[in-house]
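My main concern about presentation is that the manuscript never shows what a single data entry looks like. For the editor and my fellow referees, an illustration may be useful. For illustration, here is how one protein appears when written out as sequence plus structure tokens:

***
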Amino acid sequence: MSVAWMNPNAITAITIHCAATPRGRNVKAATISKWDTAKFGQASYHYVIELDGNVVQTLRHDQRGAHVGGKNSGNIGICYVGGVEADAKTAADTRTAPQRESMALLLQALRVQFPKAKILGHRDWSPDVNANGRIDKFEWLKNCPCFEVADLVKELAL
């Protein structure tokens, strides 16, 4: 959904998440929103990308999500179904080919609407404990989204 009247500078970040669901488990966007509503009182993400690549918008761009503690204003949340191996314990990039394609198309469309927004992974919001100007693996509060978003941004020339 496009909000044409929205100031493109109102969105300063786009954050990619995983649902932390086991590889191949066909969880739908409605279920994720139901879990989030039970936990946070609302849907957390603006978009959920299902295993088949179906992109479901669950919040409007002008609605605040509940996906990065204390950093949700002006931040569009995208969540893909998956993020852990079938054992439900081991973090992994479990995106299917259709999810990868849909994520690329969604990010390209959002980049056009919000050209100044930083595209980050959830773990990229972790504190820079050693103050070296980057978030190192030992500083991650979570593995989410279980792949390097910076590499994807570079690959897509975003």
